[in-house]
Amino acid sequence: MDISFIIPSFNGAHKLLKSLPSVFKNILNTNCKIIIVVDGSTDNSIEILKNFKNDSLHFINQSNQGRSLARNNGINYSESEYLFLLDDDIRIAENCLKIHQEHHLKFPNSILIGKVNLEKSEFDKDFQYYLQSSYEKWDENFQTRTLITIDNFKFTACHLSLSKMTMDKLGGFDHRLHDAEDYDLGMRAIDLNIPIYFDPDAISWHNDRLTCKQYIKRQIEYKRSHKLLENLQKKYKKDVFIPIKKPKNIFKLMLLHFLKNDFWVKLIDDNMLKMSSKKFKFKFYATVIYAHTLKGMGII
């Protein structure tokens, strides 16, 4: 099966050093290609890629155009029958490619999403264990290969595969979106009755050591992207968007106003609650994130 890995990267030299070796192991004795789209990086990404000296590795060096266009340009460059999309900070298990190939032999016109864990060996903050628990909670209803529908919708482009013909049918990623482009692609697939599967055996690890401050910033960007997507695709709003709202309960609102102070984020990132019970601190982390997301969205 002819497959191209498509990996967009912006200033990700240090990430590629950790993620690419896992892809090289998967493609041994295959004719697969790896296409890295260097999206206006100012680090030493090109030098790093040249040093790998692997005939399967190709790269596109372009001006910064954003993740959606970077993926689209990599897809257009590929001549393979199938596409395996990864982010530059994703490390895949040694049997991952095989699982994707076997899936597409059975379901050739479908999309397969793999399981993504956080890279625990890289954790340097207690907060990152909270993030891992949220990953696990997200996956708890997907213990076997599962068909994704509007009722159990989950979709990420950081680890998925599909045929190029299917991607052409979808029309690629919407370049107007920066954080919800994969969400939009998944919704369009459902609209077109393209089957989406999640397979927990296709394992990968995300080397994403976010602090609480960084995670809040990402959540705000994500919510804003969803708002943009609502405006672009009015039909999606009623289906799966969960708007972030100010609570009506006056006591909850007072608590959120109290916790929106930057002091609490610093407290978390300084590991000051590390010795607290897991139940308490994880609930506290979630509430602080909620308060600061509301603050960042101008709701409180």
CATH level 1 name of the largest domain: Alpha Beta
Characterize the largest beta sheet: strand count, sense, and whether it forms a barrel. 9 strands, mixed
Shape: globular
The proportion of residues forming helix, as a percent range, comes to 40-55%
The number of domains is 2
Average pLDDT number: 93
What is the number of beta strands?
9
How would you spell out the order of helices and strands? EHEHEHEEHEHEEHHEHHHHH
Oligomeric nature of the chains: single chain
Notes on the structure:
By secondary structure, this protein is an alpha/beta fold. It has two domains: 3-206, Spore Coat Polysaccharide Biosynthesis Protein SpsA, Chain A; 212-296, no CATH class. The chain is 47% helix and 18% strand. The chain contains twelve helices and nine strands. The chain has helices at 13-26, 45-52, 67-77, 96-106, 127-139, 164-170, 181-191, 212-232, 234-240, 250-259, 262-269, 278-296; strands at residues 3-9, 33-39, 57-62, 82-86, 90-92, 111-118, 146-148, 159-163, 196-206. Strands 1, 2, 3, 4, 5, 6, 7, 8 and 9 form a nine-stranded mixed β-sheet that branches. Strand 2 (33-39), helix 2 (45-52) and strand 3 form a beta-alpha-beta unit. The chain is globular.
